[in-house]
């Protein structure tokens, strides 16, 4: 007797089912998600064989932030652009790897959405075989310009119609939200499909008691930031049960663990980077939407990331992401220079 096969939900089926919730949908938005899923499979294939082919190592080029660009960054950037430049779905794009807005080539039609993306985040880790990821954010076109403009890219995170990331780790996973919960899919390489493996992800509160931060920056932090870390370590008298520390140094991987296990990820402002290191549009806003949709929160230590009105394409922001109680508590410690130390959570 054969066992009845389990019901398998591919990402395509899931996207169609989400689309049915919106009878007015034209299908354009779903097509963007399909194309991103396809691009993710192609990037995943290349990332997984990176050690086998001569694709590693720096190129001569340096990106707009003055950092050396690895070949796989360029590859991933191009794969995503080419997946979406010709279908009449987008009016323009913006990538962390490019200084300016990316126009749709003049021979192709344009559409009513904008895609912002970080093609391969954490790429400085590639040589050590550490997980890297792609992050994406989708907005509706708001400008009158037929082929899009900077205005379309500079929208507050709250206005995102979808956001997601792909983590290229021990397996490849795509996690996305369209504002109706957060859903995770694992790539089954044998059939080349993303299959629903983590429906309706909810971030545990505060879960496995993990904090994630580059503590090498301690000497550059504010007193409030240091006191919050003392609290997490149990050095603060209000918490006698230390949290564990985990820091991969690859945002998507650190965030993914935070989403599944709970806790907090931080990249604070410091004296070297007064606005933090991470980018509002390509990193902070999409992950903050996912955190919020999963019951967590994302702030810059004070404001909700999703409420920040961007002023420039590559704007940076301090970032606190994860279980709502811990993100709120971080904000209280940061503000504590002006107030009493707050009572802890999860002790
Ligand atoms: P990247 O966009 O150049 O890859 O840099 C972003 C990465 C994130 O993945 C990670 O959270 C952070 O930089 C790590 O920075 P640091 O090495 O300063 O801790
Ligand atoms: Mg990045």
Mind explaining what this structure looks like?
- By secondary structure, the protein is α+β, with helices and mostly antiparallel strands.
- The protein folds into two domains: 11-198, 2-Layer Sandwich (Fructose-1,6-Bisphosphatase, Chain A, domain 1); 210-339, D-Maltodextrin-Binding Protein, domain 2, CATH 3.40.190.
- The protein contains eight helices and 17 strands.
- The chain has helices spanning 11-20, 28-48, 71-84, 150-153, 223-233, 251-261, 280-293, 324-335; strands at 58-62, 68-70, 90-95, 102-103, 113-121, 132-140, 162-168, 172-177, 182-188, 193-198, 210-212, 244-245, 264-267, 278-279, 297-299, 316-317, 319-322.
- The strands form four sheets. Strands 4-3-5-6-7-8-9-10 form an eight-stranded mixed beta sheet, with helices on both faces.
- Helix 2 (28-48) runs antiparallel to helix 3 (71-84).
- The longest helix is centred in the N-terminal third of the chain and has 21 residues, at 28-48.
- The radius of gyration is 20 Å and the shape is globular.
- The mean pLDDT is 90.
- Bound molecules: 2,5-anhydro-1,6-di-O-phosphono-D-mannitol (AHM) and magnesium ion (MG).
